Amino acid sequence: MKNFLLIPDSFKGTMSSEQICTIMGKATKRHFPDAQVTSIPVADGGEGSVDAFLQAVGGEKVYLTVQGPFGNPMESFYGILKGNTAVIEMAACAGLPLVGEDLHPDLTTTYGVGQLMIDAAKHGCVTIIVGLGGSATNDAGCGAAAACGVVFKDKEGRTFVPTGGNLDKVASIDTDSLDPRIQNSTITTMCDIDNPFHGKTGAAYVFSPQKGADPALVERLDANMQSLAKVIERDCKVDVQSIAGSGAAGGMGGGMAAFFKSQLQMGIETVLDTVGFDALLQNTDLVLTGEGKIDEQSLRGKVVIGVARRAKKANVPVVAVVGDIADNVEGAYDEGVSAIFSINRLAVDFKVAKTRAKEDMDKTIDNLMRFIKRMGL
């Protein structure tokens, strides 16, 4: 083995993707000191996505003042990668941690996200990646759209910036006024869930309770989303309810598709395209990937399976190193995973296992490399 490609997901609450790459890399080099080891920390669109992309492909981090969740000025950031590509994580200015205990999904806005997008376009970025996740909002991305020039009017013809609590006041939407620089950009939205815009499995019912909505507010937010969906379908010619993932980030998935004509794409697919994964595979002998737990949900196309599908086409073996292995994951092998190993060396509770995860990851990769070396692979 001469070339190893490391592309693990984070083990949520235990190790970041970057930390796992470091551990895997050191254990690999211990046995193959002359090998080329390429690390690609995985970003899922949420907090830390900008840093992960910058580490993977290089670029610069841009800081600026934008509106926060309640419209107050705050310092935020985004990344500019090589190739005039911007990476924006909505959590950087509309994230749940930013509101603390002041939870009001009916009042929060994504306006700052639109300001980040505009600034990226001003810097010459022609491709913009927007990561959804960890939002404090339920405004369907209307705030971001308004910041980029989309005009929302009530039945009296007055212009306003909608929030979750007054989406039902939107009587018309004009996307023709969208900033030309944004219109001429290719916008991809990273979205790893498939919840619809509204309804019992939609944005309000599933996600707004964790943002502070009580049952009465959940019903009102969902009714507002239904009202907005009708106006979007009439004025934007987009049926957001039929788009898988439109309910992501308080309905921003649907807003990105409707207002920006953005494609909603699984986070891992965006990562693989951005880092040129297919080209990297041409010189790779083994791919190491992983996630906290591989289960049936993983088979829907998250990190391990997304990586395996690409590697299978290039006939490159893939080893998944995970925390837990659920039942009924044999389908992973059909997708291109060659083997799955758990780092859990002892039968202990998660509270204990997480404290020794880094050591166990190192020992697991060390064992794997010993085997590869012994077999002369």
TrEMBL record:
GO molecular function annotations of the record: glycerate kinase activity
Extent of the signal sequence: none
Keyword Transferase: yes
Domain of life: Bacteria
Protein's GO biological process: organic acid phosphorylation
Coiled-coil spans in chain: none
Kinase is among the record's keywords: yes
Alphabetical UniProt keywords: Kinase, Transferase
SUPFAM superfamilies for this protein: Glycerate kinase I
Family indicated by similarity: Belongs to the glycerate kinase type-1 family.
Protein name in the entry: Glycerate kinase
